[in-house]
Specification:
- By secondary structure, this protein is mostly helical.
- It folds into 2 domains: 41 residues; 197 residues, Orthogonal Bundle (MetI-like fold).
- Helices cover 81% and strands 0% of the residues.
- The chain has 12 helices and no strands.
- Helix 5 packs antiparallel against helix 10 and helix 8 packs across helix 10.
- It is globular, with a radius of gyration of 37 Å.
- The N and C termini lie far apart (95 Å).
- 24% of the residues are buried.
Length: 310
């Protein structure tokens, strides 16, 4: 009887054992599930980071200003070494010091400033005329599809004509003088502006134009309010290309019987065997071209920040 009572008294304890076992098993399974989900999340996060490109480290602002000087400094060093080591004769490649001396001599006589001012004046005038014509004609043709289709082959062919090929024709039509020189520079500046403006206006979002017309915008108001701001970044890029083209056409323009200017300094130095002055003219053309490009580049960045293109 006592054995039976002992068994009965121990019965609840025996019945509780499976409950504790089940709860422990459930906790273990939950822990395993949580660990598996955490591992899967880490794997997914790692794979997502692996597929993304690593952010590039930007150079400090001060360092950016000096990185662009590395190549010019290396070229000048190489120039100095080749000219002083006897690889080339003094006539073929004068040293940088001789070129600086030639520039100093011209500056003391007042000739260098004259060449710089005259060439810059021709570029500014020619660029202004060519840019205005390119803007007007490019806008008219870019906004009218049939005119764009009709004019594209002809203007594309004229654009392929080299700058020197225009020289005899301008001499015949206009004669020797400032007008022919400025005209040739204007021809060089016209084509980049025209091409950029006409192409940009032709690709303005039609939905944007339709929405503006729904609000009553027509004609000049539609152009100045909607279409021009939409293409303004492209227009400024075209002006930047046109300015570079104007400096390229300047040398050909100053072959038209010029007696002043950097192009004249080039040809006169070649005829007189003054390689030092010839190299001086090339360096000055490069510096002036870069300075004017940097100025319009500042304006281009401002326009792109104010009128971001889609």
């Amino acid at each position: 009887m006592s054995v039976t009572l002992d068994k009965i008294s121990n019965a609840p304890e025996l019945s509780d054992t499976p409950k504790h076992t089940k709860s422990a098993a459930a906790e273990t399974a939950a822990a395993r599930t949580a660990a598996a989900s955490t591992a899967a999340g880490r794997t997914q996060l790692a794979s997502s980071h692996r597929g993304q490109p690593r952010p590039k480290r930007a150079l400090p602002l001060g360092a950016k200003n000096y990185v662009g000087l590395i190549l010019p400094a290396a070229l000048i060093t190489l120039w100095y070494v080749l000219s002083t080591a006897g690889v080339f004769t003094a006539v073929q490649l004068p040293s940088p010091t001789r070129v600086i001396a030639a520039g100093t001599e011209l500056a003391q006589r007042g000739e260098l400033a004259t060449h710089l001012v005259i060439s810059t004046q021709r570029v500014v005038l020619g660029f202004s005329i060519g840019a205005v014509l390119g803007l007007v004609l490019g806008a008219l043709i870019g906004l009218w599809g049939p005119a764009r289709i009709a004019a594209a082959p002809t203007i594309g062919a004229l654009r392929a004509v080299p700058s020197l090929a225009w020289v005899p024709l301008l001499l015949l039509w206009i004669g020797i003088g400032e007008n022919s020189k400025v005209t040739l520079v204007a021809i060089g500046a016209f084509f980049p502006v025209y091409t950029t403006v006409s192409a940009a206006l032709a690709h303005v979002d039609p939905k944007l134009v339709e929405a503006a017309r729904a609000f009553g915008y027509r004609g000049v108001k539609l152009f100045t309010t909607v279409q021009l701001p939409a293409v303004l970044p492209s227009v400024v890029s075209g002006l930047r290309l046109a300015l570079a083209q104007a400096w390229l056409f300047l040398v050909a323009a100053e072959l038209l019987g010029a007696s002043m200017g950097l192009g004249y300094l080039l040809t006169d130095s070649q005829n007189n065997g003054r390689t030092d002055r010839l190299l001086l003219a090339i360096v000055l053309l490069a510096v002036l071209g870069k300075l004017t490009d940097a100025l319009i580049g500042v304006f281009e960045r401002w326009v792109k920040a104010k009128y971001p293109s889609n």
